[in-house]
From TrEMBL, chain A:
Protein family: Belongs to the acyl-CoA dehydrogenase family.
Residues in Acyl-CoA dehydrogenase/oxidase N-terminal domain copies: 6-118
Alphabetical list of PROSITE patterns matching this protein: ACYL_COA_DH_2
SUPFAM superfamilies for the chain: Acyl-CoA dehydrogenase C-terminal domain-like (SSF47203), Acyl-CoA dehydrogenase NM domain-like (SSF56645)
Native source organism of the sequence: Natronocalculus amylovorans
GO molecular function list: acyl-CoA dehydrogenase activity; flavin adenine dinucleotide binding
Record keywords: FAD, Flavoprotein, Oxidoreductase
PANTHER family: ACYL-COA DEHYDROGENASE, ISOVALERYL-COA DEHYDROGENASE, MITOCHONDRIAL-RELATED
Protein name, UniProt field: Acyl-CoA dehydrogenase family protein
Residue ranges occupied by any Acyl-CoA dehydrogenase/oxidase C-terminal domain in the UniProt entry: 230-378
Amino acid sequence: MDFELSPEHRMIRDTVQDFCEEEIKPIAQEVESEHRFPKEVFDQLGKLDMMGVPVSEEYGGLGGDQLMYALVTEELGRVSGGIGLSYAAHVSLGSKPIESFGTEEQKERWLTPLAQGDGMGAWALTEPGSGSDASDMDTTAVKDGDEWVLNGTKQFITNANVADSVLVKAVTDPNAGYDGISTFIIDPQNDDGFAVTTVWDKMGLNCSPTCEIALDDVRVPADRLLGEAGEGWTQTMKTLEGGRISIAALSTGLAQGAYEAAHQYAQEREQFGKPISKFDAIRDKLVDMYRKTERARLLTHNAAWRYDNGKPVTKASALAKLDASEASREVAEDAVQVLGGYGYTEDFAPQRFYRDAKLMEIGEGTSEIQHLIIGRQLGL
Amino acid sequence: MMKVLVTVKEVAEVEEDFVLDGTRIDDRFLEYDLNEWDDYAIETAVQLAEAGDDVEVVSATIGPERCEETIRMALAKGVDRGIRVWDDTLASVDLLDVNAKTEIFNAIIAEEEPDLILTGVQAHDDSFGATGVSVADAAGYEWAAVVNALDLDADAGVAHVRRELEGGVEELTDVELPAVLTIQTGINEPRYASLRGIRMAQRKEIAQQTLDDLGLDEGAVESQITLTDMYEPESESDVELFEGDADAAAASLASVLREKGVGAQ
């Protein structure tokens, strides 16, 4: 058993960490306050080959493994939850399904630009009326000659207004239940009938756009169907198994960032004549924050390792996502508390981590759904 | 074809919060990283390689296995291959002085015959600031120290350089190749290694050489310099607050300045 990262993984983590410290951390609160998607940051991520870490080199990716991708995602989360979220959605949800389920032509046309950093990816599953019960969707795709015609509304779609492709789930056979759902590659820039109807103002993660989109007779050719008709639900389950690892990694990053902010502040802030870290109440809090962060990271790396070694990962990825997301919210809340009044101001990072962390317990499967998945895996 | 040799060094950096144990800093407070000046030297070399048709960039370092990762980061940024010199004799030396480094690099230069050697102005651990020029002298190369701008005319075999002198004065000068340039921070903006560069660097060669491989013996690293003592300098600070309105404060300030000898003839 080896808990050490390989030199290659370590070098990649350290380089990404340097980049995040120098280029993202100084603007993290600013882009958040401005509710601005920092395209320039993503251009830089593209230049550093970060936009397709777990995508094969054949399609412009880095050819790295899930662990490498988790390390990169954690480092982004450590400085900016919003940038981390847009990144994870781009890779896990917008890019990986094309690699896993697409034809050669689809990969060349749609995946390569995403992996090379020439465009942002997105996917659209949730609807106004279907969240945890995701298969109960109203969006439809009807075959008309050689074309498909899509109609419906999708909700809470990360990156939709900045995306170059959106993978839209739609019902193609209303009588087939789970087997009646299919995935379509939509080009939001060029397909008529696609509209972003809302960009949400949120509790946090505001530099990562979350959109409502409307599909109004969007007509696409047959080659936009990803995989076979009826495979959409199986694809979704498979995609989310990987996606959860990235949300766990992002959560670990948020926890780490919040912990570090509190750790530093507690040693500088003096009350009653000594640093507050010297008081048991604060020291114990910091130790618990550290404990939760380490636990989240170990579970995340375990899930990534299982993924990379072809082992069943359903339970491990749900567990990592459940634990890391809760850890991030708890650690961030404690960080706000350690900083006291300052922790509640936007001049300090903990409030931002706290806001960002809450979504980790909701997106890509709520904590309640993770319990459901894990319970099934435990035979309950 | 042009060959550029960049000498690099891994240096220990002290973490922000550290504890002094006598005059020692425990290893747990140390982080190892590439010497800051060398990062600029590497960037200079890589830019030359990108601008030229056929330029090979080789990095050379003296150091234990631990520093392979630092060297590999240079490879990730575009250096073609690395040389690392280390053996038991070097491991047993407490203080590797400028002469020793000069002997070692000179042996590498004899083997590699580079057209241009780039070093950092200094290393920020021992800060001798002498290795580059000393190497040039030993190898019989031209040199320019503290270079903060470089325009290389490889065909004519001339490096047009700007050197940073004391007191904000700068000098423009031409140096004939082969030459050693010691590179100052700020000459460029060192890049981040791309992740693909890091992955490719895992497969690039770092050749390990011993003193014996370089045709040197223990005598090469014997030093005339010995460390005699370490002590913590006493530091003093003095603050005088001037109270009262502007006139009174100005008068107090004037008398303090006079006392300290400011403006005295």
